[in-house]
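Lab notes, practical 5.
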Amino acid sequence: MERKICIRRLKEEDSDAISEIYSLITKKAVNADFKKLVQEHAQENEHEAPFVAELDGRVIGFMISYIVTLGFGAEKSAYIATMGIHPRFMGEGVGAGIAREVLSFYKALGITRVCTSVRWDSTDILSFFKTMGFERSSFINLKKDLDVL
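Output from the prediction step:
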């Protein structure tokens, strides 16, 4: 019997499962700030599309995104901030299912562009987004490291 994966909006109580998934992927412990941010994204907000994939009552994946209205020459668009799939379920279409739900959410709002940033050496996530139809944009990510006081 095939088990059904449910894609639904993020809830505050999902923060522990999402933290566990994120920790398994990054191989680093997450701090309290991470959990707090996840919980904040769970608040009902018409400009955000935080979704999780659930199997047998257990969260096995997530994607957090939001609408960006101001940018250096960018039109109103959506931005995928982070995502993760439990390693045991990678490659089984879980991420694609969440992504389709997120993209449908924004399309229904009239958003015509969804962006994200990915490390150049993260070939697995680059491949995932390419498979989902993403391509290079005309924007360049910039950063400045600040000295810690």
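Observations recorded by the TA: The CA atoms of residues 72 and 139 lie 9 Å apart. The beta strands are 5-9, 51-55, 58-68, 77-85, 114-116.
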